Amino acid sequence: MEKELWKGNEAVAEAAIRAGCKYFFGYPITPQNEIPEYLSYHLPKIGGCFLQAESEVAAINMIYGAAGCGVRVMTSSSSPGISLKQEGITYMCGAELPAVIVNMMRGGPGLGTIQPAQGDYFQATRGGGNGDYRHLVYAPATIQEAADYVQMAFDVADLYRNPVMVVADGMIGQMMEAIEWREMPKRELPEKTWATTGTKGERKPNVINSLYIDPNLCAEHNERLAAKYKAMEENETRWEEVNTENCEVLFVAYGTPSRITKAAIKLLEKEGIKAGLFRPITLWPYPSKQLKAAASQESVKAVVDFELSMGQMIDDVKIALEGCRPVTFVGKAGGVVPTPAEVAAAAKAAIGR
Amino acid sequence: MTNEIMIAGFGGQGVMAIGKTLAEAGMKEGKDVSWLPSYGPEMRGGTANCCVVISEEEIVCPIVLEPTELIAMNLPSLRKFEHDVVKGGTIFVNSSIISEKVERDDVRVINVPCLDIANELGNAKVANMVMLGAYIEAMGNLGTETIKEMLVHMFTGPKAKLVDLNIEALRRGAACVK
Amino acid sequence: MAIVYQKSKGLTDAELHYCPGCTHGIVHKLVAEVLEELDLLGTTIGVAPVGCSVFAYNYFNCDMHEAAHGRAPAVATAIKRVSAPGTTVFTYQGDGDLAAIGTAEIVHAAMRGEKFTTIFINNAIYGMTGGQMAPTTMVGQKATTAPLGRDKDHYGSPIRMSEIISTLEGAAYVTRVSVHDLASLNKAKKAIKKAFQMQMEGKGFTFVEVLACCPTNWGKTPAASIEWLKENMIPYFPLGVYKDVDGEVK
Fold first, then answer.
1. Residues of chain B with C-beta less than 8 angstroms from the C-beta of A171
2. Which of C53, C60, C81 to mutate to test binding with chain A, by most A CBs within 10 Å of its CB?
3. What is the DSSP string of A286-337?
4. Helix or strand (DSSP H, E) at A167
5. ipTM of this model?
6. pLDDT, position B12
7. Is C117 helix (H, G, I), strand (E, B) or coil?
8. What residues of chain A lie within 8 A of the CB of C42, using their CB?
9. Residue among A34, A104, A177, A256 with most chain B CBs within 10 A, to mutate
10. In chain C, what residues touch A65 (CB-CB under 8 Å)?
11. Which of A61, A318, B152, C121 is in Cβ range 3.0-4.6 Å of C74 for a Cys bridge?
12. Could you tell me if A119 lies within 8 Å of chain B, comparing CB atoms?
């Protein structure tokens, strides 16, 4: 297929349409505005509905309503807006509703800045809402991956009856790259017999609900959810390894930092240092086993975690490594992006060169 | 061969469009490309810039820190980025509004009075196309034919008459390169 | 034996959990009867709130969503917009849910003229959480978070939602009714029926506020509660039609 030049945000929006999503509810916030703008133009043309809500809180609850009716639906926002959506996300996990939520992350905390950042890692992987819930988190590093994973996210959401989040930093939302629109492998999906479509007098009412007032029933519900999350961990973990075999330094980075890391690896190569990159594509479930395998090679002297935050994913790196290798951190928060040279320097420091 | 291009100027000077045209032309010629804009309040009239990478190899990092070429559409952009340009790189200067000299002597400097030329052509909006014409002529990394084909696709119907104007703008820009 | 009275098919067989003298049960019955009479049960999706009527999803014999506190109008907005044409949608909300935490959602749903019906139960108190002050609590009325009674200087005066909603162009029908006696109950049923009919005719947003009793949290007997409602609430929250795009406003 011929390559086309697409802006990240617009590719995300188009990917949703290609995945059969006809409904979008959202609220403006930089740097993701091209997503709702694109969909406000295109969804009405395919008989869908775009609605700009009064707030992110309302928008995520609209997603809840639409998902409960069994349709494919998406919302997108950026960091402070995603904070407001946490209520709806925990309700959707509780009520087992499939939907796709996109976060084009910006600097925080609070209003922070609109420049790219990855300070929402904890929020995305631990859940900013209440209760024991989990959802998949995809972290694309290119526009091609953003287009692919958004399409895939809808299938995965339907398969597990669970929301799926796609997180990228504002840079991926704003930049353009040449991509191919390719068919994603289709999953076999169960029929949505639970959806509220009107009983037509032919079945018992369907109820979309996360309330289990009887503690025993609520405990059972949590057990069932936990089993589902376990299945996601077993089947949906994704990662990429670049140059990791026999590397001396192992970088761990996702999204835009993974690309800067690739440039840093080239710089280090010129100095005779073999560095590799381990890139989690799913931030939850985290590819812990695979990371430990890569890091525990005899050649690896140090593991360098690189994030556009003050160090959040590093917790997962340390959990994965179980102390088998020293872990150092390089990164900046607040919208400043470290250079490949700075990242390479951090690697050299980690191995004492 | 990798071109890492920084294009900067005031919002409204067509800075983003120069970058997009370069990226699209590179893609059409089978190269790997990326276009990364600055974004935020400056988009509404302050200074704006975008980084374009056009490469024969896979682009790993879309951020341009040391441009091989700088296209400076206004003075603040020239002053902000000229010292980042690699040694032996090229700086394109919009000499219609930048009267000050480039401070470096280890780079090639190409002065393009793109606004004057655009005004001569009767449409100030094509100043960025004049600059683009100069870039393509000087660098030789992209074919003029590719851009012309893109223009034909871009301007259709009542806008079709703009194709010739833009092609003339490209030609006049190219003529600025000695 | 001839059947003289039958429970509406609009209600399930689940036993209601409401306190003695609470008027939720009456309003449930009216909504259920209307849905049955209009033959809408098979094509209706209701949205239950958070509050005493949180379990409404167990009682109405139609597809239901349980919404987060205050968000029922947002949930209903999406349900109506993604469902098959001809689907009936309603929210059933109390005063804490609709007039405090969900004020933005109800106002904006009404502004957009969302074609669903909201049944708003105003009993001037938070019931389920144990009698805390609501935005509709009367000045001087005691609540567990206003032990000396609502102080106007501290909390202002109660919010009148029907009046607010009626100012919005998107609202087609806005009325305040009560169920404190048979006559008012009959009027309330007519209002609910009209609201659903206007929804199905695509007229716009329809809103029925029902003044209700909460003997438990008011600290009164059911009979005394009815008297208190008549003497205190009705003068401040006058009954009547505040908006009707089809007819006269009384």
1. 36, 62-63
2. C81
3. --HHHHHHHHTSTT--EEEEEESSSSSHHHHHHHHHTTSS-EEEEE--TT--
4. strand A163-169
5. 0.94
6. 85
7. strand
8. 198-202
9. A177
10. 47, 65, 67, 74-79, 82
11. A61
12. no
Chains adjacent to A (≥3 CB pairs closer than 8 angstroms)? B, C
Which of A176, A262, A277 is the best mutation test for B, with the most CBs of B within 10 A? Answer: A176
DSSP 8-state code for residue B84: G
What pTM value is reported for the model?
0.95
Contact C79 A87 (CB under 8 A): no
Q: So where are chain B's domains?
A: 2-174
Is there a cis peptide before residue A285, judged by omega within 30 degrees of 0? yes
Contact A260 B61 (CB under 8 A): yes
Q: Cα(C8)–Cα(C13) distance, rounded to whole angstroms? A: 10
By CA distance, what is C64's nearest residue in A? A207
Q: Tell me the shortest Cα–Cα distance from C208 to chain A, in angstroms.
A: 22
Give CA separation, A255 vs A105, A139, A171, A262, B81, in Å. 11, 6, 9, 12, 26
Q: Which of residues 58-117 of B touch A (CB under 8 A)?
A: 59-63, 65
Rounded Cα–Cα distance for residues A327 and A320 (Å): 11
Report the alpha-carbon distance of residue A254 to residue A118 in Å, rounded: 9
* C173, C206 contact by CB (below 8 A): yes
Nearest CA in chain C to A65: C75
Among A270, A271, A344, which Cα is nearest to A306's? A344
CATH number of the domain that residue C96 is part of: 3.40.50.970
Annotated domain spans of chain A: 4-182+210-236, 240-350
Of the listed ranges A60-74, B42-56, C138-152, the least confidently predicted one is B42-56
Size of interface A-C (CB pairs under 8 A): 128
Percent of chain B with pLDDT over 70: 96
CA nearest to B171, candidates B105, B117, B122: B117
Tell me whether residues C66 and A205 touch, CB distance under 8 A: no
- Which class does domain A4-182+210-236 fall in? alpha beta
pLDDT digits (tens, 9 = 90+) for C108-123: 999 999 999 999 999 9
Q: What is the pLDDT of residues B64-75, one digit of tens each?
A: 999 999 999 999
| Distance between A255 CA and the closest CA of chain B, angstroms | 11
Q: What is the pLDDT of residues A301-314, one digit of tens each?
A: 999 999 999 999 99
The three-state secondary structure class of C7 is coil
Q: Summarize pLDDT for A78-96 with one digit per residue, the tens.
A: 999 999 999 999 999 999 9
Partner B contacted by A105 (CB < 8 A): no
C134 phi and psi angles, rounded to 5 deg:
-105, 165
Domain, as residue range, for C153: 24-180+187-211+224-244
Question: CB distance from B34 to chain A under 8 Å?
Answer: yes
Class of domain A240-350: alpha beta
Residue A94 token pair: 């509780």
Side-chain half-sphere CA neighbours of B25 within 13 A: 24
What is the C-alpha separation between C64 and C44, in angstroms, rounded? 8
What is the nearest CA distance from A65 to chain C, expressed in angstroms? Answer: 4
Touching partners of B (3+ C-beta pairs < 8 Å): A
Instruction: Give the residue carrying structure tokens 């929250």.
Output: C237
The CATH architecture assigned to B2-174 reads 3-Layer(aba) Sandwich (3.40)
Give the gap in angstroms from C-alpha A18 to the nearest C-alpha of chain C: 18
CB A173 within 8 A of CB A104: yes
Nearest Cα residue to A104 out of A134, A62, A146, A63: A146
pLDDT in tens, B85-137: 999 999 999 999 999 999 999 999 999 999 999 999 999 999 999 999 999 99
State how far the Cα of A155 lies from the Cα of B111, in Å rounded to an integer: 54
